[in-house]
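Think of the structure tokens as a kind of shorthand, similar to the way a musician reads notation: each symbol stands for something richer, in this case the local conformation of the backbone. In the example below we present two proteins back to back. Begin with the first one, reading the sequence and then the tokens, and try to describe in your own words what changes along the chain.
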Amino acid sequence: MIVYNLHGERVAEVGPRGAAIDSERDALELIQEAVSSDARFVAIPAERLSGDFFRLNTKKAGEFIQKFVNYRLRVAILGDISSHTEASEPLADFVRESNRGKSVWFVRDSHELHARLAPAPLAAAD
């Protein structure tokens, strides 16, 4: 896990290689590592998540994400998940709804995460 500051937010980013992540136990391990690094935002590569995570009927995504919300940590899933959202309208709805909020985001890459965390530009004075 790499920890860095991004627009005033301390981000813990999980590496792209390693075992699949999807259980509540996996979430708690990531949370513990993030909290011990004073991070308040965790970025997880989509390729690290198991296929079950993207099948909402397994409830893995909900249980996993709920752990982060309970610990008041924000979380972003980084990567192209279009094959999953194209195959599941409920997942597409879940992703769209999550991206409207501030706690859970599904973003294409770290550049999109950077843009979303950037402060809003100040309005020009007349």
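Once you have a description of the first chain, move to the second and do the same.
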Amino acid sequence: MLKTDNYLAEGSIFTNLLKFSFPLIISYLLLAALNVTDMAIVSIYKGSEGLSAIGIGGHITYLIINGAAGLSGGLTLLIGRLFGGKEERQIKKAIANTAILFAALSVVIGIAVICFSGLWLKALRTPDAAFGEAKRYVNISMAGLIFVFAYNGVAAVSKGLGDGKLPLFIIFAAAAINAALDMLFIPLLKMGAGFTAVSNILAQASAAAIGIIVLAKKQPLFKLNKPDYKTDLPLIKEIVKLGAPLGLLNVTATLSFMLLTYIVNRIGGEGAVYASCAHTIATKYNGIALLPARAVSLAIGATVTQNLGADKPERNKKTLYYGLAISLTIGVALTLFSFIFPKAVFALFGAEAAVAEFGGGYMRIMCFDYIIVPFAVSAYGLADGFGKTFVSMTINIISSIAVRAPAAYLLGIVLGLGMKGVGASIILASVASVVMAWAYILCMKEKPLSANPRKKPD
């Protein structure tokens, strides 16, 4: 029996968005806390060298993890569409086939990254003092990649069914486990900074296990049978078609920030470790600050795809505007805090005074991203709901590679603006994304912002 407690195609659109996105926002923040905990503990007990190691190593692992999260977004959208049409059998087959796909990908990608992690870290100009622990961090993370895919798969199913509460529940448990293990490995056992990856892996494994148990009890259709695991190539292709652009979107964004890491390491000169730490903290904080907008974007996409599955496209216009209002309100508050108290941001991570000096001006420029990005990702959510996930991918490739990275090099190194120039490049890329995203949705042939329902054929 298909449970429809979280059906988004009926009732108040604003209320549905809040009910769906708020638990997601909290769960995303808790997920970010897994990494923030690592950084704070490492900063206190291992200093700038340790923080630089997990910061640079984290860029590589997040590249893969974000790709997995994006790919799982395809499953969310497909299940949302099937859920809107109440197609129980297809939902079960989609879950089973995705499990097989993710297991295979985790093994292949994990082995490939481990084999080339050293070369990758050298290409990023990783400081010598941080190289060993950075490599350990990457290799351990990749060894447990299957748990990352498992967690993202469980979360994708839950979100596709309109349930934002389950990810919150399992991540709360994972955050607690991660913090406890960090304290065990670093201060008590005095292990290197790279061993924080073990905490992350065990936390992700716990989150996946708890999620599978809870979802199996909560949603009857999650109880799969042997026939559900029969390979369905059209279904797998549809998941990849929807998810691959989202995965490439995340990968491209992460790659562009890796390029920024290279530029920042050059800017730092003698103080490369401090510059690297400042960039690591600012980038991590930036990612956390943008989580509410991304959660609301996912809520928009999930609602729109259910609207279409239920043949109610007239609800899409309000879905977009209400979602934008929610994320923009949060963004304004974060911008004000970050601009007024930039040093407080670095203090939250236990950073040294020299690190805050490198990053203060950077933060005061970069924080304006929090009121620009909501306009872009809200439009992405609408397009994703229509199955046009290639839109966000294409726009991000252009803005990240053609705008952000060249602008950072030009402003930061050529014009000598240093970290402030890098911060300005982030703003320029986001503005470009907004212009392209809104231009696309306003020109879509489906007219997604029409307030009138489409006419059904006679």
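Compare your description with these statements about the second chain. Residues 18-443 form one domain.
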